[in-house]
Design brief:
five-stranded mixed β-sheet, Sulfite Oxidase, Chain A, domain 2, binds ligand MTE, Fumarate Reductase Cytochrome B subunit, binds molybdenum atom
Length: about 400
Amino acid sequence: MDATEVLNRVEVTRSAAEERQVHGARTASVLGVALGVSFGICFLTGVWSHLQQQPPGWLEGSLPFGPTGLYRFTQGLHVITGLASIPLLLAKLYSVSPQLLRRPSLSDKVNLMERAAVLPLVGGSLFLLATGAANIARWYPWKFFFPVGHWWAAWLVLGATMIHVALKAPTVRRTLGSTRTRTEAAEPATAPGELTRRGLFLTVGTAAGVLTLFTAGQTVPYLRRLTLLAPRRPDIGPQGLPVNRTAAAARTTDLAGPDYRLTVTRANGESRSFTIDELRALPQRTEEIVISCVEGWSAMALWTGVSVADVLRSAGDGGTGSEVPGIVTVTSAQQVGGYRSSELTPSAIADPRCLLALEINGEPLAPDHGAPLRLIAPNRPGVMQTKWVTGLEFA
Ligand SMILES: Nc1nc2c(c(=O)[nH]1)N[C@H]1C(S)=C(S)[C@@H](COP(=O)(O)O)O[C@H]1N2
Ligand SMILES: [Mo]
């Protein structure tokens, strides 16, 4: 047996001794892989949500309009995986706490790099999960604009994760790979009174499971009755639907009077206004469309109104000869605060289910749902389903 072989043996026995423990490499690897999966799904669905809300110039107008409930699915997953990541991350931090607190060795370059990446990784992940959870509880104890902070932190965490994964992949492969059975035989028993690895996995699994089960009902209809921990029950609110910003908060309470007008303004400044009766005289459509808030709740409703395409057609081309609009901005009577306007891409406008709704489930819209007119379209973040609509403006 030569020196390397001896060293290899020593390494195997040492790692075997570590592995059984909650602070060992195997525990950290399993939790790391689980976190990788949940963070990965959370990241991809988050990027998707961001692209829907703030498409960069080169993408604007070319995002697929998609199936009706696509955004409900992706954003539901985003919030579910984000919440499940909380116990996973806490367990992972607990598991690696001895290594985290150990002083980095200045001579070991790889170790230094690993430790340097851990700082943004841990800080960024805690920031993402904390701000995300506060956001769905609609608690904003910070000064920055949530989507922007959340977005850039996600990229920081992605970068740090890539470095971390590259450096840790050999450990994960070693601890979860085929050598496991050989090393496990040599594992010492856990000290009495110490949390076993199995115990830790059971705890974190239960926590993640309970959190998911009791919040997913805000978007998964079958789990509705179990929606005990989510901030919203999707069936509670005026006309059986939650409200994020009320009419009072948006100061639009007396909009639905006889003076109401919807004004379509062309790029050349020409405009055409519609009264409620004129809108009612246009072809009416009734569509079942889910409203999916970025905060993870969603609710199905039956909406009746006119399609945006019909309104634009009826407003005419203003003598410009161009029937096909580019981006159209939907404006509202709300004067201050976020989400008072949104943009419609040509593919959204082309879909006849892209509605300006006058009714919900057969009743005129309640003030809190955007009376007298609100936008509702398939596969669209809730923040872009503009309420109290008063204008359509060509870019
Ligand atoms: N003008 C305006 N429209 C708005 C909002 C707003 O704050 N102002 N909030 C949006 C958000 S975040 C959501 S989830 C939906 C919710 O619609 P609802 O209150 O009818 O359920 O409205 C959207 N439309
Ligand atoms: Mo929302």
